[in-house]
């Protein structure tokens, strides 16, 4: 258990730093920055208490907000996808999902079909980005802008996150 | 009563979620509508200190490039000074209207919809809200918040930013806005269809507000669209001179007559 918390803390720090210093300055195709920090929430261990999960995700979001001068936006988005993650896991993996968390998240990702992996990652990333950009624009005048931006950034984030997770799972034993 | 408490305790993760969500929404609304929130200012400074160190490391990599741009600007200014000396204008005519200060960008963002820059000078150095910010190439934005050591600048690439601009050749006025999808396309709005504008016309600041002096460069017209709708305005795309993703040295502009102009405006509004 101690080992688990230790790895969570390391991921927290590493991903915040990577996002804040490297990926926020990526500017792919002009103005798109992939959100690789989402890996933290995507592969957060299931067996950890849900309230701790919510609190950690909130703290994670706030830390990211400090780097981009966008107060509360990342926090709200990270918190929300952390809250709906069990429902999405249940929806995507069906009977394979067990909420008590005997299986680890990497088993889900390793043993499921490729479609399930893609759907799980894409729904989570898309929802997160939709929340981020709509909370940021904070008005209904920019709907098309919000959707274009969400879809484009989601695709980029998806590519980066899935590569990152693939590497994580390969190296972790 | 016991039952109610029990049912609440059963759903305690939902409760935690709602409380945290409300708190983050409060933060968002707070930063959108009210400008001075103290908790955030404090934490803001800690991260800014880290970012400052980071940017000072980063500076060494681009030092050569920065040097050449600064030298070029120096030469340009020296030439202008020479011309000015030759004219021998009456010195009583010359009254300084704008005061310039310099600053360095320590964090810059262009991937969001509302992008802000953070610069390394604050109220301690005499920075106040609504000062104009330019680089040697052109306008960058307007100061929108000031703390003791740092201030944040609303960049041109912000869907809320509106800057007064004009076409240098024809003197048509309009406001410059950003669409949100491309860092190399700004829009100049409110230019009537009757205006004869060519691609490549230069856009400068209008000087209608007390923020920027007149004729500071902004960009070039890159595309003109006549839409067939009923409205009588052109859609002008502007390519800004600045590459907003790599800015280091900026100048802040303070208008001497700012308070006077603002007082006058208030009087008119009354």
User: How widely separated are the two ends of chain A?
Assistant: 15 Å
Strand order of the largest sheet of chain B: 1-2-5-4-3-12
Shape of chain A: globular
Mean pLDDT of chain B: 83
Approximate strand percentage of chain A: under 5%
Enumerate how many helices of chain B there are, as a single number: 5
Secondary structure tally: strands of chain A? 0
Euclidean distance between termini CA atoms of chain B? 58 Å
Number of domains of chain B: 1
Quickly describe the structure.
The complex is a heterodimer of chains A (about 170) and B (about 270). With about 170 residues, chain A is mostly helical.
Secondary structure blueprint with pairings:
The complex is a heterodimer of chains A (173) and B (270).
Chain A: H1 2-22, H2 39-42, H3 50-68, H4 73-93, H5 105-111, H6 114-137, H7 143-171
Helix pairs in contact in A: 1-3, 3-4, 4-6, 6-7
Chain B: H1 2-10, H2 12-33, H3 38-59, H4 63-87, E1 98-108, E2 114-119, E3 132-134, E4 139-146, E5 151-158, E6 163-167, E7 173-178, E8 186-189, E9 202-205, E10 217-225, E11 235-240, E12 249-255, H5 258-269
Antiparallel strand pairs in B: 1-2, 1-12, 2-5, 3-4, 3-12, 4-5, 6-7, 6-9, 7-8, 8-11, 9-10, 10-11
How would you describe the overall organization of this protein?
Chain A has 173 residues and is mainly alpha-helical. Chain A has one domain. Chain A has seven helices and no strands. In chain A, helix 3 crosses helix 4, helix 4 runs antiparallel to helix 6 and helix 6 crosses helix 7. The relative contact order of chain A is 0.14. Chain B has one domain: Beta Barrel (Thrombin, subunit H), CATH 2.40.10.340. Chain B has 270 residues and is an alpha+beta fold. In chain B, the strands form two sheets. In chain B, strands 1-2-5-4-3-12 form a six-stranded antiparallel β-barrel. Chain B has a six-stranded antiparallel β-barrel with strand order 6-7-8-11-10-9. Chain B contains five helices and twelve strands. Chain B is 33% helix and 29% strand. The chains are: A mainly alpha (173), B alpha+beta (270). At the A-B interface, helix 3, helix 4, helix 6 and helix 7 of A face helix 2, helix 3 and strand 2 of B.
């Amino acid at each position: 258990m101690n080992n688990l918390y230790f790895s969570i803390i390391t991921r927290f720090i590493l991903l915040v730093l990577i996002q804040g210093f490297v990926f926020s300055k990526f500017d792919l195709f002009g103005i798109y920055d992939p959100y690789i920090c989402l890996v933290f929430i995507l592969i957060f261990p299931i067996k950890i208490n849900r309230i701790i999960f919510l609190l950690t995700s909130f703290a994670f979001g706030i830390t990211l907000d400090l780097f981009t001068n966008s107060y509360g936006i990342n926090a709200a988005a990270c918190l929300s996808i952390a809250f709906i993650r069990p429902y999405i896991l249940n929806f995507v993996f069906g009977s394979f999902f067990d909420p008590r968390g005997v299986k680890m998240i990497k088993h889900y990702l390793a043993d499921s079909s490729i479609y399930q992996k893609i759907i799980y990652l894409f729904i989570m990333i898309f929802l997160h980005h939709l929340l981020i950009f709509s909370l940021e624009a904070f008005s209904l005048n920019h709907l098309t802008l919000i959707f274009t931006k969400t879809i484009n950034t989601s695709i980029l984030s998806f590519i980066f996150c899935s590569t990152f997770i693939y590497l994580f799972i390969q190296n972790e034993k | 009563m016991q039952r109610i408490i029990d049912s609440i305790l059963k759903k305690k993760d939902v409760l935690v979620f709602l409380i945290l969500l409300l708190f983050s929404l409060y933060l968002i609304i707070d930063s959108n509508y009210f400008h001075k929130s103290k908790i955030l200012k404090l934490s803001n400074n800690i991260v800014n200190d880290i970012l400052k160190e980071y940017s000072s490391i980063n500076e060494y990599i681009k030092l050569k490039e920065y040097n050449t741009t600064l030298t070029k600007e120096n030469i340009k200014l020296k030439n202008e000074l020479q011309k000015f000396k030759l004219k021998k204008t009456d010195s009583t005519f010359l009254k300084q209207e704008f005061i310039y200060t310099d600053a360095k960008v320590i964090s810059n963002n262009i991937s969001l919809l509302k992008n802000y820059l953070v610069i390394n000078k604050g109220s301690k150095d005499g920075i106040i809200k609504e000062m104009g910010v330019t680089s040697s190439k052109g306008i960058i934005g307007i100061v929108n918040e000031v703390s003791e050591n740092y201030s944040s600048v609303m960049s041109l690439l912000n869907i809320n930013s509106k800057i007064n601009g004009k076409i240098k050749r024809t003197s048509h006025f309009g406001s410059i806005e950003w669409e949100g999808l491309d860092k190399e396309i700004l829009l100049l709005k409110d230019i009537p269809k009757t205006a004869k504008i060519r691609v490549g016309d230069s856009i400068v600041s209008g000087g209608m507000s007390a923020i920027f002096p007149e004729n500071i460069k902004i960009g070039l017209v890159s595309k003109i669209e006549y839409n067939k709708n009923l409205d009588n305005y052109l859609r002008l795309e502007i390519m800004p001179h600045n590459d907003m993703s790599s800015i280091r040295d900026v100048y802040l502009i303070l208008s001497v007559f700012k308070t006077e102009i603002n007082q006058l405006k208030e009087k008119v509004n009354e």
